[in-house]
């Protein structure tokens, strides 16, 4: 799966999804960012690069159904993820749930 395919699947499942930043005041929404990669090596060379992706789920309340929508999509896409936690974020003025996954 490419990052473009990931972005398209996310946008189809959650229309309020954005890369890098969301428009001011849009809640709930998902903001995703690729923040690096790791490689899978074999036969003395790099076989593939695996992009690391962070999803910030922003919602006025917690829990919010958008969180389940995102985790259901990741399950459907067979992308394991780690939940970095949920808390009120005063910088965003809402609850923020952070998930991290890898897209290869």
Topology, element by element:
Layout: H1 3-13, E1 17-19, E2 29-42, E3 45-59, H2 65-76, E4 81-89, E5 94-103
Parallel strand pairs: 1-2
Antiparallel strand pairs: 2-3, 3-5, 4-5
Task: Provide an overview of this structure.
The protein has 104 residues and is an alpha+beta fold. It has a single domain (3-103), classed as STM4215-like. The protein has two helices and five strands, in the order H-E-E-E-H-E-E. It has helices at 3-13, 65-76; strands at 17-19, 29-42, 45-59, 81-89, 94-103. A five-stranded mixed β-sheet has the order 1-2-3-5-4, covered by helices on one side. The longest helix is centred in the last third of the chain and has 12 residues, at 65-76. The N and C termini lie close together (5 Å). The mean pLDDT is 96.
The biggest beta sheet is recorded as: 5 strands, mixed
State the CATH topology: STM4215-like
Q: CATH superfamily name?
A: Phage tail protein-like
Average pLDDT, all residues? 96
| Number of helical elements | 2
Instruction: Report the helical percentage.
Output: 10-25%
Task: Please give the CATH class.
Answer: Alpha Beta
CATH architectural arrangement:
2-Layer Sandwich
Radius of gyration: 15 Å
* Secondary-structure class: alpha+beta
Low-pLDDT segments, ≥5 res: none
What count of structural domains?
Answer: 1
- Proportion of β residues? over 45%
Strand order of the largest sheet: 1-2-3-5-4
Number of strands: 5
